Amino acid sequence: MAYVSSDEHEENGVARRVLLAGPRSFCAGVERAIEIVEGALESRETPVYVRKEIVHNASVVGDLAQRGAIFVDELDQVPNGSTVVFSAHGVSPAVREEADRRDLEVIDGTCPLVAKVHAKARRFAGRGDTVVLVGHEGHEEVEGTLGEAPDSTVLVETVEDVEKLSPADAGRISYLTQTTLAVDETAEVVGALRKRFPLLHEPSSEDICYATTNRQKALNAIVAESDLCLVVGSTNSSNSVRLVELSRRQGTPAQLIDRAADIRPEWLEGVRTIALTAGASAPHHLVTEVVTALGEYGPVSVEEREITRETVRFELPSGLRGDTEQPTDSRTS
Length: 333
Ligand code: SF4
Hints:
This protein is α/β, with parallel strands linked by helices. It has helices at about 5-10, 30-45, 60-65, 95-100, 110-125, 140-145, 160-165, 185-195, 210-225, 240-250, 285-295, and strands spanning about 15-20, 50, 70, 85, 105-110, 130-135, 155, 175, 230, 255, 275-280, 300-305. Helix 5 (about 110-125) packs parallel to helix 6 (about 140-145) and helix 9 (about 210-225) packs parallel to helix 10 (about 240-250). The radius of gyration is 22 Å and the shape is flat.
């Protein structure tokens, strides 16, 4: 296929196509977590501490820090008796216990879908199973889930890890997954688990969340007809990185960018169609800014490709609901 260079685009007036994946950007869990910090900042007269990044996005964290939120890595940086918000990724019971001991006022930003995985970990371990957690080592969500039943849970990332498992009782195994994994890669790991442990206890529902799944499906629908994929998201955002990997696995070069200024002109050489998406923790306005920035390299035509409309909403914790009517969980996608 003969492509026109970005200069030629400008000269010939050929519009470069931008295919916008839909859904993209914020999910219900991220919106709720951000509203929790905003609500705490408005309603508390004392400093509001946030343990870890409330969501994995540099722009969101920078904005909330400017508005007064104090981000810390661990609770020992929070003075006794202060208010602390737990991030959307969840925390282990040990962190909750420490907060109790230190008399901290906790406002829990844990996404309800992560909390659901924690509840399953407790239930599966409680009935005597070895719990195999499929996830990425070191990710905050994984650390929190592992902490629910540390003696009964083992972490696997790959099919090779599954081969190395040596549980005490091969007949009592269940599995869980991190909420933000690649759907296709996880299916391979779970397939290996089923093969290795025919009596594997299956969870009643998927742990990879609706938002992760929808963003991957939406990108899958456009990536084959694109010459370049741009994913707006931060490098520590698991679901954003999965989108980049998905595109590359399909043979379309992909770049993860935090903001429009990260776009390098050489990426656009010979590129006629760009798939544009954003991870669940990246604000919508950053995508708009990327489209505007692409316009500086020649004319662009923007086409939205929405595969489904998300209507999921989660309630805020009771202490932050105020007088106005709050959205309810209406999980439909
Ligand atoms: Fe919750 Fe999924 Fe959003 Fe994570 S990506 S905050 S699990 S809805």
